[in-house]
Write a structure and sequence with these properties.
Shape of chain A: globular
Low-confidence stretches of chain B: none
Number of helices of chain B: 10
CATH topology of chain A: N-terminal domain of TfIIb
Number of helices of chain A: 1
CATH class of chain A: Mainly Beta
Number of strands of chain A: 4
Strand content of chain B: 15-25%
Structural class of chain A: mainly beta
Helix content of chain A: 10-25%
Order of helices and strands of chain A: HEEEE
Strand order of the largest sheet of chain B: 3-2-1-4-5-7-6
Largest interface: A-B, 22 and 21 residues
CATH architecture of chain A: Single Sheet
Radius of gyration of chain A: 10 Å
Order of helices and strands of chain B: HEHEHEEHEHHHEHHHE
Number of domains of chain A: 1
Number of strands of chain B: 7
Low-confidence stretches of chain A: none
Radius of gyration of chain B: 18 Å
Shape of chain B: globular
Mean pLDDT of chain A: 92
Strand content of chain A: 25-35%
Largest sheet of chain A: 4 strands, antiparallel
Oligomer: heterodimer
Structural class of chain B: alpha/beta
């Protein structure tokens, strides 16, 4: 199940406060500026810096 | 010792029945109009969020906590009426000025840098909006926890560092006002919120401490059986039992709000 659009629109990267993109197929939220990806577990975004993954 | 804050139901049994009542009084005191955008920082299992939804019909409610177990329990409880996420109070994953009311219930004392959490709550709150929080009065009239720890320290003076009155020295009006002022919040008001915690008998008081969730139950769980029994007997002796065996104690929280 995809995240509601109105949720994603108000989310921001916890590091730089930039808006996040949401490639649904990857089931994660991405900060293009920090090059960090935040996973989504059971439809709950995990927006913790410690648990973010570096993107290539 | 590491606190066990991390599981849903035992914690709800230990604190939930009281924190729900305080949440209701807190929201009544804030008295914001319906239809606002809310943020609940440190939502735990969602008691405060549920109160907001029932009483204030928010346009949007976002709730976050660092514990994924808590967030899952909150999302289950709140369903599609709230948007729950795992997040850090010190680095909120929200845009500037994206909510009207940012609240935090019974959390500010466990956040490592409460001023930074308040600064973040202020950042995400729109101009004219409110930032508000409440904490148990650990050093004063949060009676049932204070009496537990007082008994612990009587039996083991070295455990005084675990006493929540010692661990959380900033749960008083002066410290809260200072924290709110330090981040530039305006029109700051602090009030006491008091409830009576009524236990129908001693077991009703004691059993929630056996759930293993939260600082006091975590301590109790780690005690040898004989020490646990001694502590139980001391508390039984000290608590003000009524003729019918019930126990009524005061639980006070301090609530503070400021304008952005």
């Amino acid at each position: 199940m995809a995240l509601p659009k109105k949720l994603v629109q108000k989310l921001a990267c916890p590091k730089c406060q930039s808006e996040l993109s949401y490639p649904e197929a990857d089931n994660r939220l991405e900060c293009d500026r920090c090059r960090l990806a935040y996973r989504i577990d059971s439809n709950i975004p995990v927006l913790l810096l410690d648990e973010a993954e570096k993107m290539d | 010792m590491k606190d066990s804050w991390d599981s849903g139901n035992p914690y709800d049994y230990f604190m939930g029945r009281w924190s729900r009542r305080v949440a209701g009084l807190f929201i009544d005191w804030l008295a914001p109009r319906a239809g606002l955008r809310w943020l609940d920082v440190g939502c735990a299992t969602g008691s405060l969020s549920e109160t907001i939804i029932k009483g204030r019909r928010p346009a949007v409610l976002t709730a976050l906590d660092t514990s994924d177990n808590f967030v899952a329990a909150a999302q289950h409880k709140l369903g599609n009426r709230a948007m729950c996420m795992v997040g850090d109070a010190l680095a909120l994953p929200l845009e500037d000025a994206s909510v009207d009311v940012a609240v935090s219930g019974l959390v500010l004392n466990v956040v490592p840098e409460p001023e930074m959490a308040l600064a973040e709550m202020k950042r995400v709150t729109a101009h004219g909006g409110s930032v508000a929080a409440y904490v148990w009065d650990y050093g004063g009239r949060m009676d049932f926890l204070r009496m537990f720890w007082d008994a612990v320290v009587t039996l083991d003076p070295e455990a005084s560092k675990l006493h929540e009155a010692i661990r959380f020295p900033n749960t008083n009006p002066e410290a809260l006002r200072s924290q709110f002022e330090s981040v530039g919040l305006k029109k700051i008001v602090t009030v006491p919120i008091e409830i009576v915690t009524h236990f129908c008998d001693f077991d009703d008081f004691w059993k929630p401490f056996l759930g293993g969730q939260g600082p006091a139950p975590s301590y109790l769980q780690a005690l040898p059986e004989a020490d646990r029994h001694t502590l139980r007997e001391l508390l039984h002796k000290r608590l003000p039992l009524q003729p019918d065996g019930s126990i009524s104690l005061l639980a006070r929280a301090w609530a503070t709000r400021g304008k952005v």
